[in-house]
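Following up on my earlier thread - several people asked me to post the actual chain instead of describing it. Fair enough. Here it is, all 345 residues.
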Amino acid sequence: MKLGSLRQLCQHLSDKKLMKICIVGAGAIGGFSGALFARAGHEVSLVARGAHLEALRSRGLTLESEGGRETFRLPAAADPAAFGAQDLVLVALKAYSIAPMLERIRPLVGAHTVVVPAINGLPWWYFYREGARFDGKPIACLDPEGRMFAALDPACLIGCVVHAAAEVAEPGVVRHTAGRRFVLGEPDGSDSERLRRLAGAMQAAGFEVQTSGRIRDEIWMKLIGNLSYNPVAALTLARMDDIHANPALLDLIGAMMRESMQVASAYRVRVGVSIEERIGIARLIGNAKTSMHQDVGRGRPLEIEAIVGSVMELAAKAGVATPMIDTVHALLAERARHIDEAHGG
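Reply from S.P.:
Thanks for posting it. Predicted structure:
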């Protein structure tokens, strides 16, 4: 390489401001994200467990997508402490796995570390810097004793809503199936330098990034779909196209959306779409299985409280009746209990 070209390459790498990034939960969305960051040249490490971890160590992380198949050899461990302080920690765990992990990720968090929970449902930090009557309060069904706030300083958090689909095809192999849009926002709605810096880095790595001064609106926009479709799919084992072809199920979906929109409105959230428009967005997913449907098939715990129970809790605080959501929650909890029994839980 000529000296001039080498200087240009060095300047390019300097301009990119490469980061140390740890993906905590390097499964479907975590693995997909880690691969994009690694492809862009960032220093990426992975936290995983079981057979997936062993495959990551022995064969690397393989990403399958429309663009083909790529493998990345990245450091991987079960213990986050193996990697030291990071610039970015992306937490891509199921909601029920986050509480026991927060204390363990402390070694990753330095003075300027940003932590991004890329998770489903209402996040445990929802009322942090929310600015209304419940400001700073925990959601009891997610964090009954406030331990999650105590385990990790919420000042390091940036909110995130993921509009992407991926799956772990086999240990060590992540298949990206749809979307790559991530919505980011500060809990207090500010347009911070760290938010702009993170959004720029993700955009450069191949994510489709939107920043929002009202991240809770974005959380509810996705939650209204998750709250309705995920439980119905888990209870019926219907794919998305099956649900859309069944008028009775669509009536139930619509009733749950209506109730959840009433709850959102009680907390000053602007959803910005009608029920028909929200169902229209869901139709674009095609014949996919929802995440909760997949969890039922694999005998995994269900994200009931983050997706359904938390909405019931907020409804009760605001005095909003949610009879359909309450009924579906009872059915889903019973289904989950029998899944646990069948798999020795």
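The chain has 13 helices and ten strands. That should answer part of your original question.
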